[in-house]
Amino acid sequence: MISDTIAAISTAVGEGGIAVIRVSGPEAVGEVSRLFRGATPLTEVPSHTVHYGFMIDPDTKEKMEEVLVTVMLAPKSFTTEDVVEISAHGGVVSVRRIMELLLKQRIRLAEPGEFTKRAFLNGRIDLSQAEGVIDLIRSKSDKAFSVAFKQVEGDLSRRIQQLRQTLIETLAHIEVNIDYPEHDVESMTSLFIQEKCGSVLTEIERLLHTSNQGKILREGITTAIVGRPNVGKSSLLNALSGQNRAIVTDIPGTTRDVIEEFITINNIPLKLLDTAGIRETLDVVEKIGVERSRTALNEADLILLVLNNGDELNEEEQQLMEQISGRQSIVILNKMDLPQKVETEKVRQFYKEELIVPMTVKEGEGVDRLEEAISSLFFAGKLESADLTYVSNVRHIALLHQTKRSLIDAIEAAEMFVPIDMIQIDVRLAWEQLGEIVGDTAQDSLIDQIFSQFCLGK
Ligand SMILES: Nc1nc2c(c(=O)[nH]1)N(C=O)[C@@H](CNc1ccc(C(=O)N[C@@H](CCC(=O)O)C(=O)O)cc1)CN2
Ligand SMILES: Nc1nc2c(ncn2[C@@H]2O[C@H](COP(=O)(O)OP(=O)(O)OP(=O)(O)O)[C@@H](O)[C@H]2O)c(=O)[nH]1
Ligand SMILES: [K+]
What we know:
Bound molecules: the ligand Nc1nc2c(c(=O)[nH]1)N(C=O)[C@@H](CNc1ccc(C(=O)N[C@@H](CCC(=O)O)C(=O)O)cc1)CN2, guanosine-5'-triphosphate, potassium ion
Shape: flat
Subcellular location: Cytoplasm
Domain TrmE-type G: 220-379
Radius of gyration: 28 Å
Structural class: alpha/beta
Protein name: tRNA modification GTPase MnmE
Helix content: 40-55%
Cofactor: K(+)
Number of helices: 17
Binding site for K(+): 230, 249, 251, 254
Strand content: 15-25%
């Protein structure tokens, strides 16, 4: 059983309006109460109430900070333990001093993700919901947020548990037949297994079908913008990020040193790759050899090739089109306001009409068409409705693939009337693999690794 009390700063550290320190565990109320002076002692207040007062240094009796303290008593709290939250004036010093005071009590510093880990260990949420919490924090578009939010609410968990329930029923049926073989009608059991595993398989395939889109929504479409100088690449970037709220971030926890820029075209998140590097070198095709830009080009899910409508194609551009037309790529015919000089028939040799997007970036014209083109490449024309459950986590995707394999093995074995205890192994494996998604059958080391991805105070 967890018995120690933990504390951490739960808001981003820096100058801010207010900062929140969260304390969770059996000693939370008692220990914070000794450091707090308000109208009522915290040990006597009802759950889910907020109290105004001061943090007091117990040695000097000096007022340290003006605060609001929230008390949430077990089991009705995020961690299901007693939780006390201290809201202090924002700022580094104030928060550090309160933390120091807390850690001198019977309270220790929480590990990254430990609050959420406790919520998991205490059964409030399962593993996929906890992973949804990480995705929620990291999401960079409304759509990605919605996907993560559904996961936190337990949408995926419920589906997975339904499938596991079906497999448990199948296992129970098999069990009876092993224990009472005299009752077994071999062909009926085989049909039963095929039918049950088949229905689970269908649902898993449906979930896997969403996974490509799910991953894109979560991580963004890795995009490289290429083209010779002066065609309007920077303008495009500015137009897109200006109109569509750019979120610039260096994702914590990734090792790459390039700063990636996130933009969204309506609801589609694009992760722009180190485009500056490409910009300098792609003017001349032989320079594509330059390591950095080649990496970016290779990594890209999507290449946006910008051409100037008012100019003839040069040799490099034609080679480039030939080279990348096999990839997911879109041609942007920019500067439509200029008289056409570009040889569109040459462009059409490599690109279907819907992947050639005329734009006048300077005037912000054509963004809708660009969105349509991207949708047609990545979402078969439409962004699925919000009520779809997307599987976006690579761990979940891998486990679903494994489960699929196990189910196919079970079904094939049943078809061939393989001894039933052999089939049982595959069905049980599928049940365990699904269990790993929600954390029922996950190893401690895996659980530790997942929660270590969280930020401190979450
Ligand atoms: N200040 C603060 N804001 C936060 C959190 C937090 O821990 N603290 N959260 C955390 O990351 C999220 C909210 N999650 C929470 C989930 C459940 C409970 C909770 O106390 N649930 C009880 C009581 C519900 C009720 O009274 O109806 C329960 O379900 O038993 C609190 C926060 C986002 N915002
Ligand atoms: N006529 C016209 N000019 C445009 C349009 N879009 C951009 N330009 C102009 O084209 C010039 C080059 O634009 P940039 O966005 O800097 O082009 P770039 O491809 O990033 O150029 P480099 O950084 O040199 O590679 C600027 O003067 C823009 O104002 C357009 O739609 N029509
Ligand atoms: K301590």
